[in-house]
């Protein structure tokens, strides 16, 4: 009796033929691939310890030695590990300015900077500016001028404003201390331009500029 399939098989016979062929292919592929256990053994295990490093830095005038994952952003170090939650995570892409902090007096977006890059740096967050009982003069100005609504961007606005005013003193005589005195006059348009990296979704821009303008003028009067 011939095993050759009929030239015009029925539907049932066709399904039997294709099922048998598929099983044979599957068996062949299975014999060519390693088992799951073998794959697991062949892939080298990466120890998390390889991604950890100790970093020494100063935050709000406190010297710290922190062991952290080298992939940790400065923002996540501040918020998640050190619980300095005044610095806010907004866009996490460097577009809103809510995470602005001061590093050696210069304003940066903490979400775009790895913590391990700041070995030996002096970092100031909003917690380092003042306390509820003893506000920084600019913080006091924000309260006086109602320069916030929801307050989410405020910490970044404050740090950015102080950094911006320090930048404005660059090139001035060395006896002038940039973080204390603002010997230059900035127009409202200049302040707006220099602060354009900090977004306020509530739209309190005019009041923010009012507070910064008054603070700068107050410091000029001390010269």
TrEMBL record:
Pfam families, sorted: Fer2 (PF00111), Fer2_2 (PF01799)
Keyword Ribonucleoprotein tagged: no
Alphabetized UniProt keyword annotations: 2Fe-2S, Iron, Iron-sulfur, Metal-binding, Oxidoreductase, Signal, Ubiquinone
Source organism superkingdom: Bacteria
UniProt GO molecular function: 2 iron, 2 sulfur cluster binding; metal ion binding; oxidoreductase activity, acting on the aldehyde or oxo group of donors
InterPro entries in the record: 2Fe-2S-bd, 2Fe-2S-bd_dom_sf, 2Fe-2S_ferredoxin-like_sf, 2Fe-2S_ferredoxin-type, 2Fe2S_fd_BS, Aldehyde_Oxdr_Iron-Sulfur, Beta-grasp_dom_sf, TAT_signal
Keyword Signal: yes
Entry-linked Gene3D superfamilies: 3.10.20.30, [2Fe-2S]-binding domain (1.10.150.120)
Domain 2Fe-2S ferredoxin-type residue range list: 53-129
PANTHER family: OXIDOREDUCTASE, IRON-SULPHUR BINDING SUBUNIT-RELATED-RELATED
NCBIfam families noted in UniProt: TAT_signal_seq (TIGR01409)
Protein name per Swiss-Prot or TrEMBL: Aldehyde dehydrogenase iron-sulfur subunit
Species name: Halioxenophilus aromaticivorans
Gene giving rise to this polypeptide: paoA_2
